[in-house]
């Protein structure tokens, strides 16, 4: 609602993307206030990560809402809107698959012998994703024309709907609950997927440290561990991509 009233979609999208890039790089880049103040306080570190996590959520919301709201202004045809939303969801799955491809490259190039090396791996993954994402944001902002609201004669005579109007509609709460439960299942499943693969399926990368077996056996097991570790999320996102295209 605030995006419709104040500013243009591309301005909100650019501002949100900037906040996401800054906060995401700060979370994976270490405690920035701790480095500036030369302090190792756990309280300062907790406040720092909490602050950047909050900034990330604000930027993510501004980017997502402005991008989704553009669909309603690009076309008035309901079928075209569904197709655009489906394409948006499909390419979100493509972006997730690209993330795992980057992770495979980073894990294949660098070794995680120590805690510092492991942190460096995920730091490189985060920085690579931020760089690629910023490039596509620039392409989107430069290559997309700002849509304008098309007002018909019927809409000109219609009074502006107050913001409290939607809170009296049952459909508002139905949509909110469906979205809430869907995001909850998605986030929880993604959070526990890594633990399922590593703990339950016993596909930990600690097989690299085994020295009692032959080197070729260790390398083969490590390769299988890494492949299976990324095959399960890849299958999930590929299926999501196919379903998003089919559900137009």
UniProtKB/TrEMBL annotation:
Secreted among keywords:
no
Source domain of life: Eukaryota
Keyword Transmembrane helix belongs to the record = yes
Q: Which residues cross the membrane?
A: 12-38, 50-69, 90-112, 124-144, 170-198, 228-247
InterPro entries reported in the protein's UniProt record: MFS_2, MFS_trans_sf
Task: Give UniProt keywords alphabetically.
Answer: Membrane, Transmembrane, Transmembrane helix
Q: What family is reported?
A: Belongs to the major facilitator superfamily.
PANTHER family listed in its UniProt record: MAJOR FACILITATOR SUPERFAMILY (MFS) PROFILE DOMAIN-CONTAINING PROTEIN, MAJOR FACILITATOR SUPERFAMILY DOMAIN-CONTAINING PROTEIN
Q: What is this protein called?
A: Major facilitator superfamily (MFS) profile domain-containing protein
Q: Which organism is it from?
A: Brassica cretica
């Amino acid at each position: 609602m605030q995006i419709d009233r104040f500013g243009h979609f591309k301005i909100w999208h650019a501002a949100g993307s900037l906040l996401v890039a800054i906060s995401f790089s700060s979370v994976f880049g270490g405690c920035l206030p701790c480095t500036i103040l030369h302090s190792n306080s756990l309280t300062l570190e907790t406040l720092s990560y909490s602050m950047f996590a909050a900034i990330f959520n604000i930027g993510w919301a501004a980017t997502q809402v402005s991008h989704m709201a553009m669909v309603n202004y690009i076309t008035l045809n309901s079928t075209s809107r569904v197709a655009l939303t489906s394409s948006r969801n499909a390419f979100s799955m493509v972006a997730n698959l690209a993330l795992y491809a980057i992770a495979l490259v980073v894990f294949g190039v660098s070794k995680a012998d120590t805690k510092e090396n492991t942190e460096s791996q995920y730091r490189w993954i985060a920085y690579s994703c931020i760089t690629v994402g910023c490039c596509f944001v620039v392409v989107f902002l430069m290559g997309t024309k700002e849509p304008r609201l098309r007002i018909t004669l019927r809409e000109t005579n219609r009074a502006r709907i107050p913001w409290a109007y939607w809170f009296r509609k049952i459909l508002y709460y139905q949509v909110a609950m469906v979205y809430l439960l869907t995001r909850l299942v998605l986030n929880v499943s993604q959070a526990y997927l890594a633990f399922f693969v590593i703990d339950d399926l016993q596909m930990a990368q600690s097989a690299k440290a085994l020295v009692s077996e032959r080197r070729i056996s260790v390398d083969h097991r490590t390769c299988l561990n890494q492949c299976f570790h990324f095959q399960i999320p890849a299958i999930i996102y590929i299926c999501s991509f196919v379903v998003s295209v089919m559900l137009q």
